[in-house]
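Hello Y.,

Per our agreement to keep a running log of every chain we model this quarter, I'm adding this entry. I've kept the format consistent with earlier entries: sequence first, then predicted structure.
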Amino acid sequence: GSLVVAFVYKDLHDLLLTDQAIRSETDNKSYINSKIMAIAMDPKPNKLRVNVILKFENLKVSTAEKRCMFWSGFNTRSEGFSEEGCHVVSLKSNSEETVCSCNHLTHFVVLMNYDGNTKLAEEDETALKIITHVGLSLSIVGILLTLILYSCLTDVGQPLSQIRMSVSMSLGAGQIIFLAGINATENKAACVTIAALMQYFLMAALCWMLIEGIFLYLFVVKVYNINSKMYMYHVISWGLPVIMVAMSLGIAAGKEGLQSYTRFSCWLSSTNNLIWIFVAFVAFIEIVSL
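Predicted structure for the entry above:
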């Protein structure tokens, strides 16, 4: 049989290395964010057949990036810490605890990237939620009134009315989806769906805004008869965002998996650069609109 011993050092994380020492060795980016855990097995195995799962309570509650590390001696570049054979289990980790998966046994600890991103006070979070929900609710009411007025007071068959109603519908759908599911991170499928739909409708709104600018330019400045082009406007404004969303999903699935949507909120991740697809799209629309 085998004997397995595991224990947690109460104060070793304070004595082993100071925050300043670790920052100086890791480009001012990391510090210890958990107590140190030691695990040993007798007889010592050459290699574990199944990874060992370790759960650490974060010393500082934060959404900053964490890394699962082990103590390998003072001769390494990162002042004794290495992450070889260990990784964070993202789906089971959150701002308060970090779950690690490692293929060997030794002394383990969690390092957190230093970015000043600490958890807000409870009253501040409550205030932000209230402001967000009230603001978006008022915006949705305004959008609904806009759609009703356009339906009653204008000819909805006219291109300009269709364009402006499409802008309103896209923005309204995006805001409703945000309120309904931005924090649905516990369900991966629902969270990815929320993120994809928000990305789609926000991009569609931007496309319709661009189409409105092009329409007014051709109609007023160039005096072209462009009423027959509405079919093409719909294809571009509803179709192009589909391609962009599919590209984002493909990149997420090919890199870290779709769980990259679900770490902190149901939106595009900055850690795997998905957010830059959306930013580049917005920048493109703005440049063309100028």
